[in-house]
Amino acid sequence: MPDQSLLDGAKTKTKLSIETSSLAVDGLGLIATAVIPAGEDVFSKQQILNIADSAHLITTCDCCFIWLGDSVNLRTYTISAENSGTILKKCGGCQVVRYCSTSCQRKAWKSHHKAECKVYAEKYIEDVYLRATIRLLCMRKLGTISDSQWYWVNRMQSHMEDYCRSEQLFRQAISEAASMALRWTGMADSEEVIRELYCRIKLNHMTNIRMESETTGITLDPLAAIINHSCDPNAFCFFEGTKIRVRSLRPIVAGEEITISYTDDTLARDTRRGYLTRWFFDCACEKCAKNASDDVLKIPRGFNVEALNDAMQSFDFSQPDKSDFAIFGAGGPGVGWPADLQPIPNLHSHLATGYRAKTMFSDPTVSHEVQLNLLSELRHRLPLCFVGDPAIRPISTHPMRVINLFMLTMLLRRILLVLKDTSKFPDFKFQRTEVGLVYKYYMMKVHEDAPISHGKDSPLAVSVAELMRRDFAVAGDPAMMLASMKDDQLQTMRGIHLRMLQWSGMRV
Ligand SMILES: [Zn+2]
Ligand SMILES: [Zn+2]
Ligand SMILES: [Zn+2]
């Protein structure tokens, strides 16, 4: 039996074991040795490494990984776009990383930055994998990564030869990176060792994706890396600050391997498999083994897949309105596509994220245009939550579905706060009281689902409960709350919900 020390430091109620996997060629996997019911923690664990990408260095704390764009600031339970109360201070030495508090700064200094600051001060490093390599070397130097963790880091696969084959000039680039890392950190390892470390990080890292679908950086942990992929996974992972949390999507039997999806498992087979080539394997799951033409058959006659793919290729996050018009405007390739068939749900999600990015750090009260962006975001979140998601993610408490609904509620909350006069938008035929009612309607659903999807003690469930108290002065069991609502109240809410779906362009 393989060494079980990889499980050290993982918080889990269930029995897990590291064993040879039937999914990975020549690799290990994480096996449940007892039954895990649906909607339970498989484990949670502090990741070894969390590094913000270049675009998020100035908005993310280098230690606790709090991000200024979090829709609910998990410490103060306020919506950060309005006033998170969090200010990030630059490190005076390198002027590169930022911290939300002196305690975070002190912690990071001890764990890695004492060695890393000099490196950053000398040269700004754009490559996030190189920064991660340097971080690990610094931790090694300061003795803040244990021998056992270091062993597991170096036991991860690297696929260095495959990288060198598939990416031109890669060998030269990583050689340079390795020699820089060695010189800067003053470590005695050989360049070859560092080159492989770099590839190990590139292959095994995960993207730290926020609730808002914003990717803020990379994260690495050998235990998380050992979980193998399936296009029909039994578990789902997400991040809470610097911690990974893995939860079961459905009941897992004793002896079953824990699987997650490395890519968007709701995409068509060939698209999925195209993405998976970056991990150098051919997925052998049951879903992939089924007839490849299944997905193509779902496309209704007369729809132009190529035109839609072209439109997606030229998608521009910084100009969502242009992409929106090109895809869903008059005569656009997205017009008339079934809203429950990929890539339409993903397009709605991308467009909503694009509009959100435009309003995230702006004061919406001042500009008509910003308010219009909020309504445009709403037009995409509604079909995503109520038409797309139920079709592509049949589990109603799937974490992605709950997050999408949560994002919709946060958007409605924001609209209520800033859109004082809805009559300025003649097309949006809803009164503020109606928006308020539908906000409550969706919020009750999130309140009910978040403890199952993310866990009772998760920041999401906790902040939703707090928002319920704040906005509706109600607390307690979500099921009881729903039951106590009068039928005619629910009827009214449902009526507004349907009208709003219609407004978003959905036939109901
Ligand atoms: Zn912090
Ligand atoms: Zn510094
Ligand atoms: Zn597959």
From TrEMBL:
The keyword Methyltransferase does not apply. GO terms for cellular component: nucleus. GO terms for molecular function: zinc ion binding. It holds the Pfam family zf-MYND. Residues 61-117 form the MYND-type domain. Keywords: Metal-binding, Zinc, Zinc-finger. It comes from the Eukaryota. InterPro entries: H3K4_H4K5_MeTrfase, SET_dom, SET_dom_sf, Znf_MYND. Residues 14-263 form the SET domain. PANTHER family: EG:BACR7C10.4 PROTEIN (PTHR12197:SF251), HISTONE-LYSINE N-METHYLTRANSFERASE SMYD (PTHR12197). This is Suppressor of anucleate metulae protein B.
